[in-house]
Amino acid sequence: MTAHDTPAASVLETIGETPLVELDAAPQSVPVYAKVETFNPGGSVKDRIGKHILQRLLERGEVSSGGTVVEPTAGNTGIGMAIAARQLDLQPVFVVPDGFSEEKERLMAALGAEVVNVPGEGGMSGATDRAREIAEQREDAVVPQQFATPLNAEAHYETTGQEILDTLGEEIGAVVAGVGSGGTLMGIARAVSERVPGVRVVAVEPEGSTFGTLLGEAREEADYKTEGIGTHDPDVAELLDPDAIDEIVAVSDREAHAELNRLAAEEGHLVGSSAGAASVAARETAERIAEGDLDAPAETVATVFPDSGERYLSKNIYGSFEAWEGKA
Ligand code: PMP
């Protein structure tokens, strides 16, 4: 945990060092630990990359103080990057495809960002094109591009992954994380596998997403409600290295929803749907290790809860599955 014996100089210093909490609903013999990223000031794992990416871009002179940062994002990255940008004297502009959670947009605006909406049909690639156009029109603007910049995974290599190692030492059998850009999983996997050779690396996507095709698995493209992970265009996640992943697990919306509701009611974790999916996959992995069905260098599993369920109240995340699906 963050040392509280000295005051933080700014909110930026409060990012990271989040608690790693043992889950109740895991096999006795193989504990599951979740890095609870809702403890970050912007409420998600993305505060880490906002801070790291912008600090490095400033150090490298790719943008200077007073300049603009333009990023295509569905939300959490915008929130994290808005916090860092304003503290580092940069103006944040975010290009958001329609259809994502409204709370996230409001939070980005509250944090001093300009929000530009683009039609949802164009997806993240439409948002990226628009972000580049905006950057070209402004003087001293940079598009960090979380889906392409190695600084994204580097943030997790240097912070999230090291923190998990600091807490668990080499007692890590598997790391399990949802994949959007792939930065979280790749950074943690790289840090942990340096110290724990053979650690099992498990990516998580919603059913209907097609990252699994990168490992030659059959996938049927379909819509899904789980937010923040998954894709219909696996090539978009340039950071994701299929050779570094042992398995890509698909979790249905129904399972993710049931699990995030269980996590709230039984374990006191207010987390979003991507955390629900990660928890399902992490518990399954732990059960397979406990039953001797999976080779792993230790009998523990580490996972990540990326953000809070409060961010999706307007989408009826708590309660019946039908209400979340928009069918009730
Ligand atoms: N969960 C949520 C809620 C997210 O916003 C994101 C980022 N899109 C992820 C998980 C996945 O993180 P990453 O981009 O590092 O793969």
Describe, in short, the structure shown.
The protein is an alpha/beta fold and 328 residues long.
Summarize the structure in words.
- With 328 residues, the protein is α/β, with parallel strands linked by helices.
- It has 2 domains: 11-39 and 150-326, Rossmann fold; 46-142, Rossmann fold, CATH 3.40.50.
- It is 37% helix and 15% strand.
- It is built from 9 helices and 10 strands.
- It has a 6-stranded mixed beta sheet with strand order 1-2-10-7-8-9, with helices on both faces. A 4-stranded parallel beta sheet has the order 5-4-3-6, with helices on both faces.
- Helix 5 (150-168) packs across helix 6 (183-195).
- The longest helix is centred in the middle third of the chain and has 19 residues, at 150-168.
- It is globular and about 60 Å long.
- The model has no long low-confidence stretch (mean pLDDT 95).
- 4'-deoxy-4'-aminopyridoxal-5'-phosphate binds next to helix 6.
- Belongs to the cysteine synthase/cystathionine beta-synthase family.
- Its cofactor is pyridoxal 5'-phosphate.
- Keywords: Amino-acid biosynthesis, Cysteine biosynthesis, Pyridoxal phosphate, Transferase.
- One of its GO terms (molecular function) is transferase activity.
- Residues 12-306 form the Tryptophan synthase beta chain-like PALP domain.
